[in-house]
Write a structure and sequence with these properties.
It holds the Pfam family SWIB. InterPro entries: SWIB_domain, SWIB_MDM2_dom_sf, SWIB_MDM2_domain. The structure is a single chain. The protein has 141 residues and is an alpha+beta fold. It has two domains: 5-45, no CATH class; 64-139, SWIB/MDM2 domain (MDM2, Orthogonal Bundle). 28% of the residues lie in helices and 18% in strands. The protein is built from five helices and seven strands, in the order αββββαβαβαβα. It has helices spanning 5-12, 73-79, 86-99, 115-120, 132-136, and strands spanning 18-21, 29-34, 41-45, 69-70, 83-84, 110-112, 126-128. The strands form three sheets. It has a three-stranded antiparallel β-sheet with strand order 1-2-3, with no helix packed on it. The longest helix is centred in the middle third of the chain and has 14 residues, at 86-99. The chain is elongated and about 85 Å long.
């Protein structure tokens, strides 16, 4: 609710207010209104009217990498569903890697591919973990 400057000053003090620049920003003004008690000055920031933001109504549909996409039969054999978001597919792949202990013990950034992973990773025996996201992109239709 917005209140006009004149009505605001009439409510707070009957004296005429003086304007002063704010120390926080040279572009904003403060309204110095003499207080009713013993000569103190109350600093009040002027309020401008603005529309209240609209509250979110419901849940929006997933977009981008969160949107479920159809996958190839090779990817479907690993994740178990015909349609999955990219983020969930990566989670399934990492769960498979952790379950079967497929990380190189000397360098944990290298994945040693088993038969299921070789189908997804173009037949490669070893894959860097940063390459996984790029290699699975062709499996999303």
């Amino acid at each position: 609710m917005a209140i006009s400057l004149g009505a605001f000053t009439a409510l707070v003090a009957p004296e005429t207010p003086s304007l002063a620049y704010s120390s926080a920003s040279p572009y904003s003004l403060r309204l110095a209104v003499p207080a009713r008690a013993a000569g103190r000055v109350a600093i009040v920031r002027a309020v401008t009217s603005a529309e209240a933001s609209k509250p979110a109504t419901g849940k929006r549909p997933p977009r981008g990498i969160m949107k479920p996409r159809r996958v190839t039969p090779e990817m479907q054999a690993l994740v178990g569903v015909p349609e999955i978001p990219r983020t969930q597919a990566l989670k399934h792949i990492w769960a498979h890697i952790k379950e079967n202990n497929l990380q190189d013990p000397e360098n944990k950034k290298i994945i040693i591919c088993d038969e299921k992973l070789k189908k997804i990773f173009d037949g490669r025996d070893r894959v860097g973990f940063l390459e996984i996201a790029g290699l699975i992109s062709r499996h999303f239709l």
